[in-house]
Specification:
about 75% helix, transmembrane helix, globular, 2 strands, NNP family nitrate/nitrite transporter-like MFS transporter, 19 helices, MFS_trans_sf, NO3_transporter
Length: about 450
């Protein structure tokens, strides 16, 4: 660990407090949030028939599931600064479990839309995940830590595409009909979210030195960090144009991922005439790339930082985001199933590497308003998903056309990465912090062979 108590290595097979306990709890909690958030997506073909939804109405529910998250992500970051990530995450998980379990009561388009709107709030969990790992890990590995916890959390978006149809089939085997089966299936992720929220409160702590309230009471954490309130923290971040550049960048990567999570199963179901389980399995491959792809983005961000400082992180982000746009255009033109799957996997690789590279930069934007920065940038992902949602709700465009236009928009958005620049004094101080973290890691690395290399 460095002098601030942050971990300078990632010991994947450890559950020791506080660093690795937080590492594993954050990705697992985010994984479950994704599972609950998109649990209904692979069942939409059944829901469509049960509630007699039109394409426009399905599009509206997709928009609703990500729109509310924009607002909640903007709010949740400053709340982390004020109350600490432990309490904030626990509250979000417990409250978020309620609409997930309750969506089964929907009996019309309007009520289904309302429940999807409520479920979307748990998408703010991403901000807390990134905040908590940013607090726990040093500059030499923070990109890798952020990318891995977020990537393994995003993996829930792929796993749910595969697992939820199986849970639905299990409900059918127990005697439920289709209309009741999808309703009962959603209770499963809701219950697990509730239990995880309780566990998060008791098993984690806010920072390496303890919880925020304890640190402030002991005088070990300045009250000035919180004395101006959440509003001042947000304004400090909102005045920085670079934060909004990353807002657009994240809209073009995470926003695209959210969109694909919502439409992939029904896209393959309709366009390639597949059954629900097969369509869900193929759609799940997109999210399963999170097992390693987002981590690659963070690891390369750390590697480029060792070679070229913060500028290296910026250039990497531009390259992988431009590659994402090109790969999406290619995917949109595939009419043969195996070619569509192959191009989707390549596209998924660059989407998630872009996400990891984005949050390889976030911890260095404004350390005094880290929660607010993470909240604004994270909200960009959902804003992008809302904007993309309008492409897929109109009857005038096919899904293929929507994907094509989205690919061009991503390539344009990649230019925003080049707007992120840092003053010379910041470059110097961050490079000094990086070198100190690397120096502190050397003796620890020899004694900890299960650690993830900082430059891997």
């Amino acid at each position: 660990m460095d002098t601030s108590g942050k971990a300078t290595s990632i010991k994947l097979f450890s559950l020791a407090k506080p660093h690795m306990r937080v590492f594993h709890m954050t990705w697992f909690a985010f994984f479950l949030c994704f599972f609950g958030w998109f649990g209904i997506a692979p069942l939409m073909a059944v829901v469509r028939e049960d509630l007699m939804l039109t394409k426009a109405q399905i599009g509206n529910t997709i928009i609703a599931s990500v729109a509310i998250t924009v607002l909640v992500r903007l709010l949740i970051g400053p709340l982390c600064d004020k109350f600490g990530p432990r309490k904030t995450y626990s509250a979000l998980l417990v409250l978020g479990s309620l609409p997930v379990m309750s969506i089964g009561f929907a009996d019309s388009y309007e009520s289904f839309l309302l429940f999807r709107l409520g479920i979307g709030a748990i998408g703010a969990s991403f901000v807390i995940t990134q905040y908590h790992t940013s607090v726990m890990f040093a500059p030499n590995v923070v990109g890798t830590a952020n990318a891995t916890t977020a990537g393994w959390g995003n993996l829930g978006g792929g796993v749910t595409q595969i697992v939820m149809p199986l849970i639905f089939a299990g409900m059918m085997m127990l005697g439920a009909n289709e209309a009741m089966g999808w309703r009962l299936a959603m209770v499963v992720p809701g219950v697990v979210l509730l239990l995880t929220g309780i566990a998060y409160y008791f098993l984690t702590q806010d920072a390496p030195g303890g919880n925020y309230d304890e640190l402030r009471a002991a005088g070990l954490m300045p009250e000035a960090r919180n004395e101006n309130g959440a509003g001042r923290s947000f304004l400090s971040a909102a005045r920085d144009y670079r934060v909004w550049a990353l807002f657009v960048v994240y809209a073009a990567c995470f926003g695209v991922e959210l969109t694909i999570n919502n439409i992939a199963a029904i896209y393959y179901f309709d366009n390639f005439k597949l059954d629900l389980k097969t369509a869900g399995l193929i759609a799940g491959l997109f999210g399963l790339m999170n097992l390693f792809a987002r981590t690659l983005g963070g690891m390369f961000s750390d590697l480029f930082a060792r070679r070229a400082g913060l500028k290296g992180r910026v250039y990497l982000l531009f390259v992988v985001l431009m590659a994402e746009g090109l790969a999406l255009v290619l995917f949109s033109q595939m009419a043969v199933l195996w070619m569509a799957i192959a191009s989707m996997i390549v596209f998924s690789l660059f989407v998630q590497m872009s996400e990891g590279a984005t949050f390889g930069l976030v911890p260095f934007m404004n350390r005094k308003a880290l929660g607010a920065v993470a909240g604004i940038v994270g909200a960009g992902g959902n804003a992008g998903a809302v904007a993309a949602g309008f492409l897929f709700k109109t009857e005038a465009l096919t899904y293929q056309q929507g994907l094509l236009y989205l690919g061009f928009a991503v390539m344009l958005a990649s230019l925003c990465a080049l707007l992120v620049r840092f003053p010379a004094q910041v470059l110097e101080s961050e490079n000094a912090a990086l070198q100190a973290a690397l120096a502190a890691r050397k003796p620890a690395a020899a004694a900890a062979p299960d650690s993830v290399p900082a430059s891997a």
